Amino acid sequence: MSGWPRPAHFDPARVAEVFRVPYAERADEARAFARRHGIAPAWRDARRVGLVLVDVQNTFCLPEFELFVAGRSGKGAVEDSLRTCEFVYANLGRITQIAATLDTHSAGQIFHPLFWIDEKGAHPAPHSVLSVEDVASRRWRPNPALANSLGLEPGFDIDAYALHYVKTLYDVAKYPLIVWPYHAMVGGIGHALVSALEEALFFHGIARETRTRYELKGSHPLTEHYSVLRPEVLVDHRGAKIGERNFALIRALLDFDALVIAGQAKSHCVAWTIGDLLAEIMRQDPALARKVYLLEDCTSPVVVPGVVDFTEPANTLFERFAEAGMHLVRSKQPMESWPGFPA
Predict the structure, then answer these.
(1) N or C: which end of the chain has fewer CB within 10 A?
(2) 143, 149 in Cβ contact below 8 A?
(3) Three-state SS for 333?
(4) Using CA atoms, how far apart are residues 319 and 340, in angstroms rounded to an integer?
(5) β-strands 303-304, 308-309: how paired?
(6) Is position 259 within any domain?
């Protein structure tokens, strides 16, 4: 891989571990590394390159955690994290700013078991798919005991909302409502970035004298939030707003001369983020799609053997993104060799 050498602290064997980043030590090393290799502060960049890392958190990226994105290889997110670390270090002086998204949840949300009960008061098993018919027939209905703690206004019809929600997902042709295992729990270890990636982002921020941007998503109890740019459902059954697009982030991302995107999972949060970004691009100027680069070897789809395999849907979406003008690239290719990369 061309570019800057790996810093001495980086150990590829630790990408699948949880460890404490020694910030003071890494800060000293980053400053020395920048001086030694002539890496200038990011504000001096004539060509501004942004890197978006979607949900590179323990909950998705480590095999022992709740929603490990294994891909078909069984090692998907671990291998992706290794390549992403190497990409950041190899391009330390080229990447102007990194934005990391963080899926941020609590137990009582619409995609977790606690939210739903059947006629016996049992909760659905993780990975259950709840159809419009399931909710309309009340085979699964919102847990009335939980409703009191969701901060809803008096008289809010949670049952009417639940039916509206699954119908909305169906109408916009997204995936049906899936009840996921409890994951990305705020305050927990699973919510944290993969340690090796956290270390790489911290090192980059110190070496380039720039602020890493962190974007939390997914805390609203009544909607999924795969994409960092908007929740899945924007209004409730009465037409009242429950969420909105992240216009500040959209503007920031489209302001870069080149934008690189990677993370987990290719079939869900990465795909939905790119799809929402593309929708904004099409509203503004379709030519902007040509500034977006998708790191194909730093993202994997959700695959649960014998349950679900989103590999083909994810590949189909990425093909659609490429047809719109975005570029599918690999992390070991020098940036300067990427098609249309700004000089």
Answers:
(1) C
(2) no
(3) coil
(4) 18
(5) antiparallel
(6) yes
Do β-strands 49-54 and 258-263 pair in parallel, antiparallel, or remain unpaired? parallel
Instruction: Give the span between the Cα atoms of 266 and 210, in whole angstroms.
Output: 28
Q: Per the structure block, which two tokens stand in for 324? A: 């719109």
Task: Say if residue 244 is in the same domain as residue 197.
Answer: yes
**C-alpha closest to that of 100 among 18, 5, 199:** 199
Give the helix ranges, DSSP H, for the chain: 23-37, 58-61, 76-90, 132-136, 144-147, 158-171, 195-208, 247-254, 269-284, 311-323
How many domains are there within the chain?
2
| Token pair for 84 | 């992403």
CATH code of the domain containing 320? 3.40.50.850
Number of H helices, E strands in the chain: 10, 12
- The last residue of one of the domains, among 147, 179, 211, is 179
Tokens of 133: 């018919």
* Cα 281-282-287 angle, rounded to 5 deg: 70
Per-residue pLDDT tens, the chain, 343 aa: give them: 458 999 999 999 999 999 999 999 999 999 999 999 999 999 999 999 999 999 999 999 999 999 999 999 999 999 999 999 999 999 999 999 999 999 999 999 999 999 999 999 999 999 899 999 999 999 999 999 998 899 898 899 999 999 999 999 998 867 789 999 999 999 999 999 999 999 999 999 999 999 999 999 999 999 999 999 999 999 999 999 999 999 999 999 999 999 999 999 999 999 999 999 999 999 999 999 999 999 999 999 999 888 788 999 999 999 999 999 999 999 999 999 999 998 7
Q: What does the longest C-alpha to C-alpha distance in the chain come to?
A: 67
| Structural domain ending residue among the three candidates 179, 197, 218 | 179
- Give the H or E element holding residue 100: strand 97-103
